[in-house]
Design brief:
Helices cover about 5% and strands about 45% of the residues. Strands 2-1-5-3-4 form a 5-stranded mixed β-sheet, with no helix packed on it. The protein has a 5-stranded mixed β-sheet with strand order 11-10-16-13-14, with no helix packed on it. It has a 4-stranded mixed β-sheet with strand order 7-6-9-8, with no helix packed on it. About 40% of the residues are buried. The longest helix has 23 residues. The protein is rod-shaped. With about 575 residues, it is mainly β.
């Protein structure tokens, strides 16, 4: 019994020892497949042995990431033994490339990622001011265009935007009533510098000023030969017209500008209503006061205007009766004085009136005999003082009359010899000064005249060189200054003279730039300050000039805005008065 048990135990032990040996000698199969389940390689290895990793396969457009156990769909760890038959399948991930868009100063297009071999889809065109987008190219020399859906991406790629400058139009427009031709319209590339042309438009009653980008003149203005840089929009230019100035008058701190259409404008001090706009507000820009005006003269604090019907009107101070109205009330709007008036002269605080029949009337202050009525009594109504006159001029406290025969007469204050009679005695009746006179003007304390031969003469106060004789000596009788002149204007202590060729000459005080020569140095002799002048007016410490194109200019003192340039800045060179 014991023997039989021993034999069974021995056999069992042998079996236990043999079975592991048999198992250890068993084989398993490892099969490697492509992504499409095609068998690439099959190997046989011992069970629980390591399988050798084969060489990495290659697949265009993909990166090999490893071998997956098909039973678990997990990447196999080749340091792990294989216990059973196993199938490995190649695992891949697509290669992705970046496409960069070089928009060449256009709007930014974000880069895109594209898998290998896929075609580029163009979704958005860039934008660039002033340019038209032509297309994308694979090279910066723009030899190879990119068309939708045709460019297969096989590497990191940059595509380049091609642009063409936009062509835009510059067009000049003639408005209603204009005569002549405008410059031809032309096209220009964006960014091109365009030189503005002038054309030859005219318009009756107006002067061409400049071109403007808006028909109402409120856009950007361009004069001929100005330059503009072409934008990405068409440019239409409209003519801007101004009414030419016909006459200017200057005195203490306000000035008046008369335009050819008969409208009267004032600038500067308005404390007494002398601008005639119905207020007492000072004006730095011209303010309209009257229409249908033919002539204007400015006094210290009052203004005289003659309308197209030959009626005389006054505005401003009436403190001495210089407006010929009863009482002493200032007039803030025009008040009618008399009819049939050819010319008028507003002085310091008196007025002279020349009627159509050649008679001269005077009113206002007469303390120094400046009314010429053989008295020193102020007059609140016009008094007849002379006949057969052709022109009148009123200074601060003295007066001049030019007879129809060319004789110059003077009267009033004479402490500086401003009457030119060789004395310093004031006169309350006209005294003869000179013959063959064609133009004259009375300043604060000096006088000027031009004779028929074009010679310029002066007399009176000369402390600042306002007589133009190169000295500062007072002259009791006329002294000759030069030749070739047509008219003159006498200010407070400076003078203007207009030559036959249009040159404006200035002399005298210049502390605030009233001579308009760019300095503040007094000039005892005439110096040229302006070309192409047509009308001149010397005021208290400022000067007004109208050029041959009808543009009004001003220089000098400007504390009340009397220069009409919108500021209160002193100007030692002429600046344009803001026109119509």
């Amino acid at each position: 019994m014991m023997k039989r048990l021993f034999r069974h135990m021995t056999g069992l032990m042998i079996l236990v020892m043999i079975i592991p040996l048999l198992i250890g000698c068993a084989k398993v199969t490892a099969q490697f497949e492509s992504q499409d389940a095609l068998v690439l390689e099959t190997v046989e290895i011992g069970r629980n042995k390591l399988v050798e990793k084969p060489s990495d396969p290659v697949r265009e457009g993909y990166r090999f990431v490893g071998w997956k156990d098909t039973s678990s769909d997990r990447l196999w760890d080749f340091s792990k033994p294989v216990a059973d038959n196993i199938t490995f399948r190649a695992a891949w991930e697509p290669i992705t490339y970046t496409v960069t868009f070089d928009s060449a100063s256009g709007t930014r297009i974000s880069p895109v990622s594209i898998q290998h071999g896929e075609t580029l889809t163009l979704v958005q065109d860039p934008k660039r001011q002033g340019y038209e987008f032509v297309g994308w190219y694979t090279d910066s020399s723009f030899s190879h265009p990119v068309t939708q859906g045709t460019l297969a991406i096989v590497k990191d790629t940059t595509v380049y935007a091609k642009w063409e400058p936009i062509q835009r139009l510059v067009r000049y427009v003639a408005d209603e009533g204009a005569i002549g031709s405008v410059p031809a319209e032309r096209t220009y590339r964006y960014g091109t510098e365009v030189v503005i042309e002038e054309g030859n438009l005219t318009k009756p009653g107006y002067r061409f000023a400049h071109w403007n980008t808006r028909a109402d003149g409120l856009g950007v203005s361009y004069s001929a030969q100005d330059r503009l840089t072409m934008s990405d929009k068409d440019v239409v230019l409209y003519p801007v017209w101004t009414v030419p100035a016909a006459h200017v008058s200057a005195n203490f701190f306000h000035n008046m500008i008369l335009y050819e259409d008969g409208r009267l404008f004032g600038t500067g001090l308005n404390a007494n209503g002398q601008l005639g706009d119905g207020t007492k507000t000072n004006r730095k820009l011209p303010i309209e006061s009257m229409t249908n005006v033919n002539y204007v003269s400015v006094g210290a604090t009052h203004t005289l205007a003659i309308d197209t019907n030959e009626a005389l009107w006054g505005m401003g101070s009436n403190s001495y009766g210089q407006l010929a109205t009863q009482g002493y009330t200032d007039q803030h709007t025009e008040i009618k004085i008399m009819d049939k008036v050819r010319q008028a002269a507003a002085g310091g605080f008196h007025s002279l009136v020349l009627t159509t029949d050649g008679n001269v009337y005077a009113m206002g202050s007469n303390e120094d005999g400046q009314l010429g009525d053989n008295s020193n009594e102020d007059r609140r109504t016009p008094v007849l003082i002379a006949k057969n006159a052709s022109a009148v001029s009123a200074g601060d406290y003295h007066s001049l009359i030019l007879s129809q025969d060319g004789t110059l007469w003077s009267f009033g204050y004479n402490d500086y010899g401003q009457l030119g009679d060789g004395t310093k005695q004031s006169r309350n009746r006209p005294v003869r000064v000179a013959n063959q006179v064609v133009a004259m003007d009375a300043g604060a304390n000096h006088s000027l005249f031009v004779k028929t031969d074009g010679s310029l003469w002066s007399f009176g106060s000369n402390d600042s060189g306002q007589l133009g004789d190169g000295s500062q000596a007072t002259r009791l009788s006329p002294v000759k200054i030069g030749d070739g002149f047509v008219t003159v204007s006498a200010g407070m202590n400076h003078s203007l003279a207009l030559a036959k060729d249009g040159t404006v000459w200035a002399f005298g005080a210049n502390a605030v730039g009233q001579l308009g020569n760019g300095s503040t140095k007094d000039e005892p002799k005439p110096v040229p300050v302006f070309e192409d002048g047509a009308v001149i007016a010397a005021g208290n410490e400022c000067s007004l000039i109208i050029d041959r194109d009808g543009v009004a200019w001003a220089c000098g003192k400007n504390e009340y805005g009397q220069l009409g340039d919108g500021t209160t800045s002193t100007r030692n060179l002429p600046v344009p008065i803001q026109g119509l």
